[in-house]
Amino acid sequence: MGFVKIRKEIRVTGLVQGVGFRPYVYRLATDRNLEGNISNTVSGVTIEVQGPLELVEEFVSRLPQEAPALARITSVAVREIPCKPDGQFEILPSLVGARADTLISTDVAVCADCLRELFDPADRRYLYPFINCTNCGPRFSIVRGIPYDRALTSMAVFAMCEECRAEYEDPRNRRFHAQPNACWKCGPHMELWDALGRALGVHDPIRAAAERLWSGQIVAIKGLGGFHLSVDATNAAAVERLRERKRRFEKPLAVMVPSLDAAGRFCHVDEQGRMALSNWQRPIVLLPKTGDGTIADSVAPHQTDLGIFLPYTPMHHLLFAAGKFSALVMTSGNLSEEPIAIENREAVERLGGIGDAFLVHNREILRRCDDSVVRSTARRLRQIRRSRGYVPAPVPLREKVPAILAVGGELKNTVCLMRGNEAFLSQHIGDLENAAAFDFFCEAVEHLSRILEVKPAIIAHDLHPEYLSTRWALAQEGVKLVGVQHHHAHIAACMAENHLDGRVIGLALDGTGYGTDGQIWGGEALLADYGEFGRAGQFAYLALPGGAAAIREPWRMAVSYLREAYGDDCLDLNIPFTRKIARRKAEFVCRMIAQRINSPLTSSCGRLFDAVAALIGIRHEVSYEGQAAIELEMVARNSNDTGAYPFELSRQDGPWQIGARPLIEAVVDDLKRGVSVETIGRRFHNGLEETLARLACRLGEESELTRVCLSGGTFQNALLLDGLTGNLQQGGFEVFTHSQVPANDGGLSLGQAAIAARFARAESK
Ligand code: ZN
Ligand code: ZN
Ligand code: FE
User: Fold this and answer.
1) Residues 336 and 200 in one domain
2) Contact 44, 13 (CB under 8 A)
3) Which ligand approaches the C-alpha of residue 136 most closely?
4) What is the distance in A from the centroid of ligand 1 to the CA of 133?
5) pTM score, two decimals?
6) How many Å lie between the centroid of ligand 2 and the Cα of residue 677?
7) Which of 188, 218, 251 is the last residue of a domain?
8) Which of 403, 395, 409 lies closest to 473, judged by CA?
């Protein structure tokens, strides 16, 4: 019986290493008795497969369909080649030293198969905290360089035992080439240390740590991308002690819960939230609290949302199994805004005053990586902090670009490297305000360049001359520098992730960004493409009395707005705000503004939120960036009022001006009438949405543009984002927002890079 035998070569590019792709292909081929081989290439894998025509074709069509969950196939190219006598299907060894253009996987939460083994008393890895397989486990955080091979990870120091080695070499085993493969016999292990870093020699460190947590102690726990500081979230005194010691007084703390069921007890979890909580990235998900009072109020004071996440390492599961906790605070292991600690000794040194004990292990974390944070909004999931689980997965671009590095801004810094038609954003680096953060920044740039094998000839940076990222860029030699205006970068980031080209109307709302006129911008309407932008609208300039002090003390901004509306008599207004502030200080602030002493001008929308929040008594001072605005949103969400405060929209020569005087007067009137803060907050949001939509309409008429991009940290406000989007759509606009990268400054580097790419293209013409 004859049949047609053919041989095909299939080239697959994308994320196909370290994700169980080769054993998958091996099974797919051997299940059909096909001959041939698979090997790694510079850009992915190449498969040769030979057999009866129908079976080979079935193989080719199934290949992308049934690929492992973590694989990300960019392209599949198939061609027919002459048959060869193989006799079997083989996995050819990786070429040592081959330039691997393949992608490094992100860290992946422990999979269901490994979890089953973890709690199976008959399994040889029963209760082993480092169990993993080709579908799960650490990746990015343990990678030193490429190719992704055990020798170039922090697992290199652990020699596999015979059993692990056999699994690792067996193409039919689900641990075939699982680089972090390990077991009790040969792999890393955990220890419990006291506050001074002395090993306690306990038999079961995880259980002992659980007991300490149970008794109210603070335990510093080494995880996947860094240390966490943990306490029992239901123990108010313990949470209080953690806040005192960490010097983090009001910023909400993230809470890890053992299961989706537990999550549903503390938060309203809709379908989108459920997906976000249980996907393999395991981000912290911000979800509305239920009334359940089990978790201490001090975990997320003044918040209607709670940041929750599920266990993602085997160790987390063991901790919950040992302790029967309903919720554990798991906050970054750092002192206030410094980078998260990753080394055992470093942790004891830096966190010694905070942790009562240290649950550590001897698998080195090579890449610091904070937990990611997402928010579930009415329309989709939004990134707040894109880090563990998402990095270094690229953001796809609409076209190929030259190699470019963008160094981001100052707060919530990330960097971005573009290669081919993909943008690789770094993990969350944080606020570049101290030496430790700057070291982390340099390290992230170096590592990203190394694993992507890119030496960028172009570096994009913010225009602010004092940002450490700008200063770093300016000090690089032999590269082309491109300075990018902050809000232009925000809009370009939104355009890039939505694959837009051409001109758009951009609404960039945030706290602070250096303007081309040297003033502090932050509430801008731009007409922009990647090449250039014009400022078509802005919040009218107002004094920022005391500069940075006005950011920490929103009451100063409230005085600035009041004075603008009512003149120097504003302090005599009979409203709770003027009765509560210290008269002397307020008069001083008024004088500063009048005499223009240390009072730069700002068009910041973030500061307007601050001012309104202070004016209606939500808070006069903040302990973290954006706090007043966040609390104002929370308050406004409790009202369904449909009233909308007026703003003034006017124009003379320059950009449209959004004036807040009518708004401030309306707020003051409502305060005098005793209208609730919820209603005032809601009317403020409604008014802002209406005004911005009105401005967009004017700009649309003038420019005939119909696409609007929304970007900047203010759009983390889901109420504003959803409301404004609705308003704009009703006005006939197509609205584009962020979902893959944060709207805040964490997404800035993507926009800078996109602008530099256009610049490079123009240069080369
Ligand atoms: Zn697994
Ligand atoms: Zn072993
Ligand atoms: Fe910004």
Assistant:
1) yes
2) yes
3) 1
4) 4
5) 0.92
6) 61
7) 188
8) 409
